[in-house]
Structures are given as structure tokens and as C-alpha cells.
Amino acid sequence: MLTTYKKRSAAFRLERHRLEMDAGNIVIREAVVDDVKAICEIYGHYVRESVATFEEVVPTLDDMLSRFNSLKADGMPYFVAEQAAVDNSVSPVIVGYCYAGLYRTRSAYRYTLEDSIYLDPNYRARGVGSMLLRRLIDESTKRGFRQMIAVIGGSDNLGSIKLHERLGFKHKHILYSVGLKFEKWVDVVTLQLELGEGSTSIPTQNQP
Fold first, then answer.
1. Is 52 part of any domain?
2. Residue 67 domain boundaries
3. pLDDT by residue (tens digit) across 170-184?
4. Model-level pTM greater than 0.70?
5. CA–CA distance from 23 to each of 29, 165, 181 (Å)?
6. How many separate domains does the chain show?
7. What is the pLDDT of residues 61-83, one digit of tens each?
8. What letters, b where the CB count within 10 A reaches 16 and e where it falls short, cover 30-61?
9. Within a domain: residue 14?
10. Do the domain assignments include residue 15?
């Protein structure tokens, strides 16, 4: 039993080291307008190939610019993961992004956010998602928000579910077969994370 535990611990340390090495040249920074083209390309993959989003038609660059500008105008946190250039001959590359928007538009929801996170498929399981989501959680907390909801397309979307669980989200419930994409019914999984003081206090009027 002890031998098995040691093997698992060693394997865990090796995997954590691998992820840290893979993510070592990744920078998480605020997204800017010039990033939207790369964001659009990453998101388009999930529209075409995945049930992670329930959109079925890839939005245009103008659509994505409009969404980006709307979130920024509302003061919402928006970040990209950028792989630093190895040398001067190669430009930095956007390999993932995340943002948060209000969970619902009615005013009583104003302290509750819904997160969105998408990665370049070649950068999944390399620690980038954790870096992005952790930054989003930290910034959302600083801005005075109290709850964050993850709405995940597909109950078999284990990568996203486990990512959120690793960062403290608690599994709430499954909405069964609420989406139809690629000619199959798709579940939605919701998870929730308390930010800051959560529900233990009432925010002051100037927050968030």
C-alpha cells in the first residue's frame, strides 16, 4: 500500500513538473483588441468541432470584436495566454484566452459571473488552462465579485470539469439533454466557486 502511494506521489510530482516546464514560457496578460483575430480562430475550432460551446455557426471577426468591446466596456476581466517568442525571428503566439461576464443580465445578478475559457487544442493538458483560470479568479475577486459559475457543455467534457474542480469549483448539477449539436443531445454541467467573502457579507454600494 505504501509502495503504491509512493509511486503515485512520484508520478504526480513528475506530471506537475512536466506541466510547469510546458507552461514556463507562457505569459498571462490582459487581452487587447489586436488579440481578437487569434481569439476568433481558437473559438472557431470549438464551434466547428466541439460541444463545449452551443454555437453552431462560427462568428465573424466583427462579431468577436463586438463581443470583446462590450465585455471591456462593462469592465469585465479578459485575459490571453501568450507563448513568448523563442527568438526575434518568431512572434509571440496566443494559445488560449478566458474572460468572465455577468451570469445573468438582471441587476440582482450583478455580483455573479460566468467564466469562459478556450485553449488552442495543441496546448491542452499543459497547465495553460490552470494559469488562465487562476488569473481570472484572482482578478474577479479583486473587482469585488462574489460568485463564479462555470457552465460546461457536455457531461463528458472531463478536461474542463476537472480544471474547474482543481481550482475549487464545486459540482452543482447537470441539465440533461438541453442542447442538440452534431445530431446528438448534449448535457450542461454547472459548477460554482465562491469569490472573496462570498455570501458571508453584503458588498458596499460601490462594488463591483
1. yes
2. 23-194
3. 988 999 999 999 999
4. yes
5. 14, 20, 33
6. 1
7. 999 999 999 999 999 999 999 99
8. ebeeebbebbbebbbbbbeeebbbeeeeeeee
9. no
10. no
